[in-house]
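In the current project phase, our protein records have gained a structure token line. A sample record follows, to show the layout:
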Amino acid sequence: MQSMPETFPEDRNLWSDFQALCEFGGRLTGTPGEVAARDWSVDRLRALGLGQPTREPTVYTGWAASEAKLALAASGEPLDATALLCSGDTPPAGVELEVVDCGRGSPEDIRALGDQLRGRAALVRHDYMFATTTIHRRVKLAAAIEAGAAAFLIASPEPGLGAV
């Protein structure tokens, strides 16, 4: 039997398998999408004759977002919002902060703002994840934290695409 990496160059089903796996949507651990993707993967590995897959329990610290709300202070108009994975809680009454537009949000962009971010919300643009020039959100977040930001917001770079 060949090892899995040795089959990649001649595997005609690799792309369709990848697409099938993506069809389950989000795969954050413990979600229905993750469970369905995991079950599909086990069945697919069996069908490929790659032995008997096993599941190994792993202890880890979990995270779940109960809700995410964002609104304009002046009008109360709600905005689409999704919590950043593993982000912290806000006080029960929420927070009201001035938002500072940090452009793309590169560490250089954020450093150039100096003290303007301290105690305010940093607003950065989301990068296309598969570009060679992508700056990952964790890098942008780290720069905002270092600059003293009290909150971190990521906006879609294209109008009308919804929350990132």
The mean pLDDT is 86. The longest strand covers residues 121-125. The two ends are 43 Å apart (CA to CA).
